[in-house]
Design goal:
This protein is α/β, with parallel strands linked by helices. It has helices spanning 12-21, 33-40, 51-60, 93-102, 122-133, 155-161, 171-181, 194-225, 229-236, 259-266, 272-303, 327-338, 362-368; strands spanning 2-6, 25-29, 64-67, 75-78, 111-114, 142-145, 164-168, 189-193, 308-312, 343-347, 371-374, 391-394. The chain has 13 helices and 12 strands.
């Protein structure tokens, strides 16, 4: 069996590697020539524990080949980004472009699967695109939707062990897709229709967004009431049926910070709670920004000089290098834009350099800073001890103070 994966990003590349490791011949396709070249050399272009040696192994064995264009295959997988446009409307142009790129290579009996997070109805829409150009294939290929369900930093385990939801446009398509995933997925494969699978993915991440919004809203209430939110949540969670999540400086990443908009755009009147949760989590980043700016102004008034400020973490969650939709990055940008000639050190230990921010070592930044804002709870930061001679804004609960 040969499978072609369109998109070698945070999900497409790990899935392609694991599928290749299971014995399937994989062609990984990406429009970024640098990504293709690096992958072809067996070098990982993302940060994911344990994936580098597996990539080297499947590339050296010839099981994974990276290209900039598709090739004839038995199965095609669309694993490209689905961002949103203005007014948070979903943008499926990448999915459509990837779909159109494989249309010339489709043959009778092929499997075509979309993994990209998509609005309800996208799989049917892409089937229309395919059959519009290749009407002779109608009813002769298998089209399905199977969203990823992984946690960055633990992708290998979760791709293999997590259950998967597989939605086919037909029962045969769902069965065909399930037979492919069964090569490397040990979790249960749950078959359904494509629309249910599409909404299932959106609902999973929207549920998390709502739960995080509750924690973030509690943090705002506790700040005003003079209560330690970390202690409050720990005590509330002693109740056997309560499990409140931990607050942070917002919500980021390409899933939880984006997927709810796919629901609110399509069902605006029916998704009031989901929409409000998005507003709360977006506001939390603005609130953190104001906290940093106010601390800087207060320091300058009391000390007659501008403070040295350390902004700790740019990634959207701990111990990864993914900055997509990161509230930490947004906070850093807004703080820097708000003040002239301020001594601001930006720290992100999981990347070597950034096009906008000049990065500082986390130990140096912590030592030098008068004000330290912890935005992401990276493991490196957990080695730092609380210092009473600094103004510490702990937005991610490192010290629980």
């Amino acid at each position: 069996m040969k499978a072609c994966f369109i998109g070698l990003g945070y999900i497409g590349l790990p899935t392609a590697i694991i599928a290749a490791n299971s014995g399937i011949d994989i062609v990984g396709v990406d429009i970024n020539a640098e990504v293709v070249e690096k992958t072809q050399r067996g070098k990982l272009h993302i940060l994911e524990p344990g994936l580098q040696p597996m990539l080297k192994r499947v590339v050296d064995s010839g099981k994974l080949v990276a290209r900039t264009t598709p090739v004839p295959s038995d199965a095609f997988f669309i694993v490209v980004p689905t961002p949103f446009k203005e007014n948070h409307l979903p943008d499926i142009s990448f999915v459509e472009a990837a779909t159109r790129s494989v249309i010339p290579f489709l043959q009778e009996g092929n499997l075509f699967v979309i993994e990209s997070t998509s609005p309800v109805g996208t799989t049917e829409a892409m089937a229309g695109v395919i059959y519009g150009e290749r009407p002779e294939l109608k009813g002769k290929i298998h089209i399905a939707y199977c969203p990823e369900r992984v946690l960055p930093g633990n992708v290998i385990y979760e791709l293999i062990h997590n259950d998967r939801v597989i939605g086919g446009l037909t029962d045969d398509a769902a069965n065909k897709a399930a037979s492919f995933y069964a090569h490397f997925v040990l979790g249960t494969l749950h078959k359904t229709n494509a629309r249910t699978a599409e909404l299932c993915k959106l609902v999973e991440n929207s549920s998390r967004d709502v739960q995080i919004a509750f924690a973030n809203e509690l943090s705002l209430i506790c700040d005003k009431a003079g209560i330690n939110v970390w202690e409050l949540i720990a005590l509330a969670n002693k109740h056997p049926r309560v499990n409140i999540l931990q607050p942070g400086c917002g919500v980021g990443g390409h899933c939880i910070a984006v997927d709810p908009y796919f629901i609110t755009a399509a069902f605006p009147q029916e998704s009031k709670l989901i929409a409000t949760a998005r507003q709360v989590n977006n506001y939390k980043a603005e609130w953190c920004t104001e906290k940093v700016k106010n601390a800087m102004l207060k320091f300058e008034l009391l000390n007659g000089r501008k403070p040295k400020v350390a902004l700790m973490g740019l990634a959207f969650k701990p111990d990864i290098d993914d900055l997509r939709e990161s509230p930490s990055k947004r906070i850093a940008t807004q703080v820097m834009q708000s003040c002239n000639n301020a001594d601001i050190m930006v720290v992100e230990p999981n990347i070597d350099q950034h096009k906008v921010f000049k990065l500082t070592d986390y130990r140096e930044a912590y030592d030098r800073a008068d004000i330290v804002a912890f935005l992401t709870a990276h493991k490196q930061f957990k080695t730092l001890e609380w210092r009473d001679n600094k103004i510490i804004l702990d937005f991610c609960g490192l010290f629980k103070k």
